[in-house]
Amino acid sequence: MRMSNLQKEKAILIGVNINKWHNFNASMDELKNLAISCDYEVIGQLEQNLKEANRSFYIGSGKIDEIKALADRADADLIIFNNELTPSQLSNLVKALKYRVLDRTSLILEIFVKRAKTKEAKLQVEMAKLQYMLPRLIGINESLAQQKGGVGSKTRGSGEKALELDRRRLERKLYELNKELNILSNRRTIQRKKRSKGELPIVALVGYTNSGKSTLMNTLLDISGKPEHKKVVEKDMLFATLDTSVRKIEKTGYPAFLLADTVGFIDNLPHDLVKAFRSTLEEVRMADLLLHIIDISNPDYEGQIKITENTLQEIGAGNISVIYVFNKIDTESEFQAKAVNNKVFISARKRIGLELLLNLIYEELFNKYIECLMFVPYNQGKLLSYLNSNAYIKTFSHEEKGVLLDLRCLKSDYKKFYEFVYNK
Ligand SMILES: Nc1nc2c(ncn2[C@@H]2O[C@H](COP(=O)(O)OP(=O)(O)OP(=O)(O)O)[C@@H](O)[C@H]2O)c(=O)[nH]1
Ligand SMILES: [Mg+2]
């Protein structure tokens, strides 16, 4: 641990390229960005090509001395592996290297721990971390217990007992966290129900981390004249957003909709994390429409599209309609603002192509809608207030026996209230 907060901890990155994986270089670049996002200084990198991973160390055992020499020379604080290590690989590496070792998953978890702000996000992250750490802690403790006690020695029993206590304590903690999360998740469901009474359609921003979801949210908030404090955090950093924020987008002359900004996805997003974020990702599952944001300045954006699509499947949002938003066209001269079917090319930061995007959104959301005149008698107060909150009323006039409304409403409502439709 460094004395000063100003001095960053120094990390060495290790990558094992198994079977000439075509995406290896991109994934090492991403690991570097993850480390920087986690506030480490990357001071060295070591790679090895292998046909298959080494069972004890993941990397070939011959490389261990090389890593150690590199770390000693560079005065490193920790070593980060670009893959998930098994509990035994992790404990073997810690023993052999005598450095702190992180794998890709625990690095991502560490970023989430640092970034989580709301109580729910904090609990979700803690839970994911515990789930991931549980078998690994036990692996490390087990070897410690054996070292202390020695096989067949008298003290062996007490080591095992401590281990069992540890396991129980962690399991108990997991149980408590789960209970607390359920309470929060129920509260969120109630909030969502309240919101859905208003029946405003929900559009969710989804996509790879750093693709520009939050920037687009802020740009759309600006366009609809929302004050600064409604804005969300946008940053050139992986996993800038962890919490779902929902905002109302209202552009003059258009019906309102809700827009949800959510946590970004990444290759090999730890499974426990996806599970733990289930309730915050509920906003995505409940959405009427997804805006899949793609960063076209990233050389591997096609791979990122696939990863996002797979993750959407995994969280149960695979069947929702999607608009593919190719973002950051300002960075590549070959792209121009255009919309083709359900694809649109924009720049959220430079505000290029936003009208095209909005038109697509409105078309997708409101082609389920119909424009008509309705005449609602004064004794139908309930219907009037229903339409007030569920339809977009363009104009209305008070007549002798009721209100004449010029509106846009759901086609299903049109059918339901057909007897009140004025211009059949
Ligand atoms: N050049 C350019 N940069 C952009 C554009 N849109 C967003 N960015 C930049 O991309 C970086 C990431 O933007 P965010 O909006 O934070 O991305 P995000 O998808 O919300 O990221 P996470 O919350 O980490 O998942 C920021 O530095 C933005 O300024 C764009 O249209 N053009
Ligand atoms: Mg964001």
Structural features, described:
The protein is α/β, with parallel strands linked by helices and 424 residues long. The protein has 4 domains: 105 residues, 3-Layer(aba) Sandwich (Rossmann fold), CATH 3.40.50; 78 residues; 167 residues, Rossmann fold; 52 residues, no CATH class. Helix content is 44%, strand content 21%. The chain has 13 helices and 14 strands. The strands form 3 sheets. Strands 6-7-5-8-9-11-10 form a 7-stranded mixed β-sheet, with helices on both faces. Strands 2-1-3-4 form a 4-stranded parallel β-sheet, with helices on both faces. Helix 1 packs parallel to helix 4, helix 4 packs across helix 5 and helix 5 runs antiparallel to helix 6. It is elongated. The termini are far apart. About 2% of the residues have low confidence. The site of magnesium ion (MG) has 4 residues, from helix 7.
Profile the largest sheet: 7 strands, mixed
In the CATH scheme, the class of the largest domain would be: Alpha Beta
Q: What ions, cofactors and ligands are bound?
A: guanosine-5'-triphosphate, magnesium ion
Span from first to last CA?
75 Å
The name of the CATH superfamily of the largest domain reads P-loop containing nucleotide triphosphate hydrolases
Could you give the order of the helices and strands?
Answer: EHEHEHEHHHEHEEHHEHEEEHEHEEH
Residues in helix, %: 40-55%
Instruction: Please tally the β strands and state the result.
Output: 14
| Beta-strand fraction estimate | 15-25%
Helix segment tally = 13
Q: Strand sequence of the main sheet, in spatial order?
A: 6-7-5-8-9-11-10
